[in-house]
Amino acid sequence: MRLVIARCSVDYTGRLNAHLPLATRLLVHKNDGSLLVHSDGGSYKPLNWMSPPCSLTLEQPDEVDVEDGVIERWRVLHAKTGDALLVRIHEIIHDTAHELGVDPGLIKDGVEADLQRLLAEQVSVVGENLTLVRREYPTAIGPVDLLLRNDDGTGTVAIEVKRRGDIDGVEQLTRYLELLNRDPLLAPVTGVFAAQEIKPQARVLATDRGIRCLTLDYDEMKGVQSGAPRLF
Q1: CB-neighbour burial class of residue 200 (10 A; exposed 0-12, middle 13-18, buried 19+)
Q2: Average pLDDT over residues 196-219
Q3: Cβ atoms within 10 A of the Cβ of 186, count?
Q4: Predicted confidence band at 225 (pLDDT cuts at 50, 70, 90)?
Q5: N or C: which end of the chain has fewer CB within 10 A?
């Protein structure tokens, strides 16, 4: 990755035309060919950029550019669309390159698998006198995230776990419940829709179908106080 701090102007031509007048900016040229133009404030997003597949070519400034003080021209051309990004560099303040190697990618904390695991370990969050039957309980249309059994033998509880609960998740749990309730060894099966955040429309639909909604506090389940104020 090459990092260049330079006084430059930038012109984008293609599906749209855009111009950045002369200013000091950070140019990030990556090994995949992409170029990002950043300022020192306003947003984490670049002011302009060219995504791969693309290539960068160094050009000699023409007479007009030389008169304007341009010392280098970078032209980045998109291989498929033909869009072009032209950077006219007037001064290079800093220029460095680094080999970053292969990135392992983002590991998210609090994904559905984490929530499911924590809830399986803490079934008391769902209610008292419940025992875990298994995670990923199989049905003909896919596995339900958690299946719990009432200790008094009065039936089972099917739980669908989401980070953000919407109507699609409620519909999914509804289909699971229809199948599970056909099994005399499991019926009656009640449903719990569990998520860190449940959209109002999903909550209304779940309530209408007799499905209980459960809001999960991921930090608390990990044993960390979230610090969020609570009403109850």
Answers
A1: exposed
A2: 95
A3: 18
A4: very low
A5: C
10 Å CB burial of residue 23 (0-12, 13-18, 19+) is middle
User: 33-63: b or e for each residue (b if 16 or more CB lie within 10 Å)?
Assistant: bbbbbbeeeeeeebbbbbeeebebeeeebee
Task: Note the pLDDT of residue 109.
Answer: 56
**Residue 101 pLDDT > 80, yes or no?**
yes
Tracing tokens 């909550």 back to the chain, one arrives at 203
- pTM equals 0.55
User: Which tokens sit at 113?
Assistant: 């698998």
Average pLDDT of the residues in 140-159: 94
Q: Please check whether residue 205 is in contact with residue 166, taking contact to mean a CB–CB distance below 8 angstroms.
A: no
